[in-house]
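Sample intake sheet
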Amino acid sequence: MVRVKPFAAIRPPKDIVEEVAARPYDVLNSEEAKAEAGEKSLLHITKPEIDFDPVADEHSQAVYDRAVENFKTWQEKGWLRRDGKECYYVYAQTMQGRTQYGIVLCAHTDDYAEGRIKKHELTRKDKEDDRMIHVRIQNANIEPVFFAFRDNAEIASIIKDTVAGTPEYDFVAEDGFGHRFWIIDDDAVIARISKIFSEDVPAFYVADGHHRTAAAARVGAERREQNPHHTGNEEYNYFMAVCFPESQLRIIDYNRVVKDLNSLSEEELLKALEEDFEVRLESKPRCGRPAKPFRPEHLHQFSMYLGGRWYSLEAREGRYDDNDPIGVLDVTVLSRLVLDKILGIKDLRTDKRIDFVGGIRGLGELARRVDSGEMKIAFALYPVSMKQLIDIADSGNIMPPKTTWFEPKLRSGLAIHSLD
């Protein structure tokens, strides 16, 4: 079972929460962040390179120093304040009329080291190192990680009772997504939540934030080595997470665009695809209008945009293994039968000919990148299910790169966890 605890969040006063809260550091480039950040925005802390003109190297010492300075300044000015007691919190996100409710807590680094916090993606050491630096220099988890856990009726009941009250925060961000936030400060309820997780929740599953999770665990290990009186209860052993019941989460598609056809003509490519797929033209330009986008409707069906036309690709029987948690994934099928076999892309992590587009951008973004000449071909995939993700994590397997895209993203700045 997992070990959790409440914490005294560092967070903005309710009257300025919209000014402080920001999109996560990794969904914006520096130029976008600079254009988006207002005076009080957390982006000055999570992406402090925007304070320099021109924008500075985000890995430079001056930028790291500015991050520390800004975090201190935000607290001195009262834009961030620490709660007077340790609490749990409930965070609700609403997108397109659908709401998901998560509990904000601190997870223990031992659970990550011992496999009770389960991952489904590999991490890159350089990205872990960068996140480690931020945790180390701030002595805090500035942004939460995003976990899922198997549905629990009693946790659901506590969340339901909590959200019946008035939220501490309630706003709609510039992207149209709603954010609400409640405080659980009743000692009996706090104790019950801790007990439920320790007795009835066997594991957390990393939905988003593999690098932040790994970095937090590494900082915890670093701190315990430095402390001859380490007990395992110190605050540095914990890191901040927002944890959602699995049934509330939805994974959206994560699509691919490729720069060339590996020296093939369009006709040769279509012919090559027919060995493993039933290929059908779904739409083409008409009367000066672009082709109507086609979205995959079920597992093992793909959408392809090529030469201004949308095609469906239906994988033939025997080309996938529904009994293998990795072999059943459409990212595996596409990678093996198209990207590798036909287009010559062997390593999704390093090949510069391929790029990835989150489904939140829509199929129109795939067509735009091809029509602009930047890319030659695009593929849209049917989304992975939460069941597939959990099955893979439970089996100890790792998904191929860029398999899952969760939306909406967690808003940064609603809560910060200090390691003291």
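Comment: The CA atoms of residues 33 and 43 lie 7 Å apart. The longest strand covers residues 98-108.
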